[in-house]
Write a structure and sequence with these properties.
The structure is a homodimer. By secondary structure, chain A is α/β, with parallel strands linked by helices. Chain A has twelve helices and 14 strands.
């Protein structure tokens, strides 16, 4: 078999460690030059392939590639662009195969969440149908931690660590001033349909009575009366009340507490505003002084406080993806499998993509406390190992982390026809 | 002179390093047992003195006191409680002196901002008038960095580092996805009347074109047309636009962009909501997809990424306060004085409280760029040294920082009469 090149693309919302996966892919491919030629990266994700904008990663120094491991966000650019079904837009798939063929690309590494697992599977299937079979490997990434099969998704552990630490720090702040100032603090976190990130806030509580006192999950229908009663009794008992609320918190009927009314390219609603909604309830009904924070992108880009476990796993799935490709695997995803022992351990195993694409893993109900307003011991046991260890980026003399900016040299185009995305 | 005890209290909004100042006070006092007896700390600040709730810090181990240096928020509790003027409430001052007298307290260390500098000065003056002279030393602390005389205020450097890093990280996130997703990102930061914290966001830009592209200061009247034009031209040029907005951003007539309508105990308006206000403008007028974050308490409690310079200075002013007390000083504040050399250096000097109380230091206009939407080179030269160095807290096996919780044993009450605050 003639040596093929590889294509790597970042998809969907970026994370603090997605570049660590890119680092794993590129460093491992460089170690296997007998099997894999160049690694091209899509400029801004899959649309880089459609536009034939292929970043030639061989132009980047070993040092720059190594620095990806401590650089947040998408170093090659990512996108929210969902390929239509073959019926709806056959031209897109044909274009991809045409570009891959023109650049002798035989390996497709797609680094994303559930939507991109689906795309990855389709590329694998359709490329075979179209007579240019490509080995498509999906590399898991999502702060939402909602991919099935894998014990957790790279990107989540670092958000979890950020949210747990931020909850702890802000809670100490509120606690120390509640006698005369703010009594209720609300931190709104990401997690559209699954409460994994909100649950991570629960790790901040190390002993009974510690904040957060209430967690609002998308999985548990919001009950205003129950919520306000709990806020009130917590303030009466502890002097203050800290709430971690998922952006996806919703009423019994599935309507979101805060719905900004916008939708993204995948048709998902753009959320944001649960915290001020809750704050208004607290003020109107209980009259307590409140503050709220909305971490938004800060939480998923916070490489400065990434989980060392997460960084290692993100690198490992990138490395494993290349190794699977070399072994001839196709339509698979390297999944993180948790060891059975009491001490946390993990290994990488391959998972079939057709069992992953478009399946959303929710929080098991038993990870949530019986009253629905906190995490259970089982939840804590699951979450705690994922935030273990610190992996600090290097800092410059100016007091800022030294994040790498790549040169991003594009490979020469080989196809005359342009493709408008 | 008979050996006197000391009283230490934390006042107003807490910070990531106010406990480092407490550590400096207590450790230094412990080294001078010949001069200073016990250090009592006010439970929840000055109201602890009014209620005769004095925390006996001698009951805390050396290890716990040392751990204050890496623990955020107010370990003894702080409060927003402004003493009225002597005319309005003489009973409060008489009560304080009574409590200090009953516990043989001759040193008053008050750790706060402008309001508490004023209280500190009054205590010094009135205690003399009332026949029980107390040496009152103010220890500077405010994330707002608006204290005069001192080059900067402990607490600010760590918020500045947090804001600079968060701006940088979130900007990388937005930049990597702007082709198909969010084009405008707004980070709202603290700073009621002075734009110091917003200015710190400017440090994230290391070269031309880097985010943040716009900074909104309270000092510069907000001009909607100019703002939207700049947002639009930035998106056209760079593909995305990042804005750091002070909560105190205001129109020409002094009205705040976002005014939640509440006031705190000092009569200050409770702000919050500039970011969503700006986001709505951007969406309505330009139609760009936006995201926004409101860091709120997260920024001032973020000990996990404190500036090493800030931690050192916070400790140093606490230490210097005790040394000044021992030297017989009164109604002074240890101020941080910047060296003249090119390389950043600093020393501690005493500053007279009557020149500090109730004076607010604004950003010099020349620290702001000519167009009013960014920082100048002079601003950068001032700010950059303050965020230098990292001073990480120790972490436990559970992946969380090990912040100390003190025992807070109260001294036995000596006054029968209760005082209701």
């Amino acid at each position: 078999m003639a040596k093929k090149n590889a294509f790597y693309a970042q998809s969907g919302g970026v994370t603090a460690v997605i570049n660590a996966s890119a680092c794993g892919v590129i460093e491992t491919a460089r170690q296997h030059k007998k099997h894999i030629g160049k690694v091209y990266a899509g400029n801004n994700g899959i649309i880089g392939a459609l536009r034939e904008e292929l970043i030639d990663t061989s132009k980047e120094s070993a040092q720059s590639i190594a620095a990806l491991k401590h650089t947040p966000a998408g170093a090659f650019g990512s996108c929210r662009y969902k390929l239509k079904s073959l019926d709806e837009n056959r031209a897109e798939y044909e274009r991809l195969i045409e570009v891959f063929k023109a650049h002798n690309i035989g390996y497709f590494f797609y680094n994303g969440g559930g939507d991109s697992a689906d795309t990855c599977l389709k590329i694998s299937q359709l490329s075979a149908t179209m007579g240019y079979p490509i080995q498509a490997i999906h590399i898991p990434k999502t702060v939402d931690n909602d991919l099935p099969f894998t014990d957790n998704s790279p990107g989540f552990g670092s958000v979890a660590k950020y949210v747990a630490i931020s909850t702890k720090e802000a809670s100490l702040d509120v606690k120390s001033m509640c006698e005369t100032s703010t009594k209720v603090f609300i931190l709104e976190v990401m997690g559209r349909h699954a409460g994994w990130i909100a649950a991570a806030g629960g790790l901040a509580a190390e002993k009974d009575g510690d904040a957060p006192h209430i967690i609002l999950f998308p999985e548990i229908a919001f009950n205003k009366d129950k919520f306000l009663k709990r806020v009130n009794s917590t303030v009466k008992k502890h002097g203050y009340c800290v709430i971690v609320a998922s952006e996806g918190a919703q009423y019994e009927d599935g309507s979101f507490l805060a719905d900004a009314g916008n939708t993204d390219a995948f048709g998902h609603k753009q959320l944001g505003g649960v915290a001020p909604t809750l704050a208004t309830m607290v003020k109107d009904e209980l009259g307590y002084k409140y503050h709220w924070a909305l971490a938004d992108y800060l939480q998923r880009s916070a490489r400065h406080i990434a989980s060392a476990t997460d960084v290692e796993q993100a690198y490992a799935v990138g490395k494993a993806a290349v190794e699977m490709a070399i072994e001839g695997k196709n339509a698979v995803m390297p999944a993180i499998i948790r060891g059975k022992g009491k001490k946390y351990s993990w290994t990488i195993q391959e998972a079939p993509l057709d069992q992953i694409a478009n399946v959303e893993k929710m929080m098991p109900r038993n990870y949530i406390s019986k009253d629905g307003l906190g995490i259970s011991e089982a939840g804590r046991r699951y979450l705690e190992p994922l935030i273990q260890g610190e992996n600090y980026p290097p800092y410059g003399k100016n007091g800022l982390p030294e994040y790498v900016q790549l040169k991003k040299v594009l490979a020469e185009k080989k196809i005359e026809k342009k493709f408008v995305v």
